[in-house]
Amino acid sequence: MSSFRKALKSRQKQHHERSQPVFRKHLGLLEKKKDYKLRADDYHKKQNTLAALRKKALDKNPDEFYFNMISSNLEDGVHVAKKNNEEEMTEEQKKVMRTQDIKYVEMKRLAEAKKIERLKGELHLLDAHRKQQNNHTFFVESKEEVHSFDLANHLNTAPELVDRVYNRPTLETLETKIIQGAAEPHSLAKMRKHRYKILAQRIDREKKMYVIAQKIQTRKDLQDKNKKVKVKQETPNSAAIYKFKAKRKR
C-alpha cells in the first residue's frame, strides 16, 4: 500500500522546463518541447507534400491530353482561359437558344404556379399576412352605443375568438358541442405559419421567374436589326423597355 501511495501522481513533483538563462537572453526565447513539436509537424507535413508531388510527377503519362491545354494561354506564368469567339454562332442559332431558355423558364414558372394554387386551396389564405384585410362595419343608433359597444357580446362569442376570421363559434355552440380546433394547439398554429411561409416563398419565386423570362425575351428581341430606343432601364424586378421603329410588312 505504501508503494502505491508513493506512485500516486497527485504526490509526484511537478517538473517544469527551464527558462532561458539570463546571460542568453539576447538569443531570444528558449524553445520548449511544445514549440519543437509544432515545428516538427510542419516540417514533416511539407516533406510529405513534396514526396507526393514528386511521385505524381514520376507517374504522369507524357501522352495525356487535357482540353485545357488548347483552351488556355500562359500569360506571365499564369494560365488564362481563351476568350470565346462571338462569331462562332450565327444570329439564328442565338435566337433558337434564347427561345429554348424562355420555354424552360416558362415551364418551371407554370409548375410553380400550380403548386401555389394547390397551397392556396389547402390554406384558403386564412390569417395570411399579404391578404387584404376585410372591413366589417356595425351600425348603432347613437353615439353612446359607439363608446359602450362590445364586439364579443354583439357577435355572441368568446372574447378570445373575436380576432379570428375563421372558426368563430357562438357561446351556445361552445356550451353544447365540441368544436374541433376551437382552441388551436401551439403545434398546429406553428405548422400553419410554416405553410404560409412556404407559400410566400413560392409566390416570390414565381415572380422572379416571370422577370427572368421577360429579360430573356427582351435580349432576344434586341438581336433584330431594327432601330430601337431604350425607354426604361432594366431593374432587378423588371426588364428593360425598348421602343422599336415601326416596320412595314409586305
From TrEMBL:
Keyword Chaperone tagged: no
- Key word Nucleus present: yes
Task: Name a single GO biological process.
Answer: rRNA processing
The places in or outside the cell where this protein is found are:
Nucleus, Nucleolus
Write out the biased-composition intervals (Basic residues): 1-16
Q: Where is this region: Disordered?
A: 1-22
Q: Please give the coiled-coil regions recorded for this protein.
A: none
| Record's GO cellular component terms | small-subunit processome
Q: Just give the chief location class.
A: nucleus
InterPro entries per record: SSU_processome_Utp11
User: Into which family does the record put it?
Assistant: Belongs to the UTP11 family.
Q: What does this protein do?
A: Involved in nucleolar processing of pre-18S ribosomal RNA.
Q: How is the quaternary structure described?
A: Component of the ribosomal small subunit (SSU) processome.
Q: What is this protein called?
A: U3 small nucleolar RNA-associated protein 11
Q: Source organism lineage?
A: Eukaryota, Metazoa, Chordata, Craniata, Vertebrata
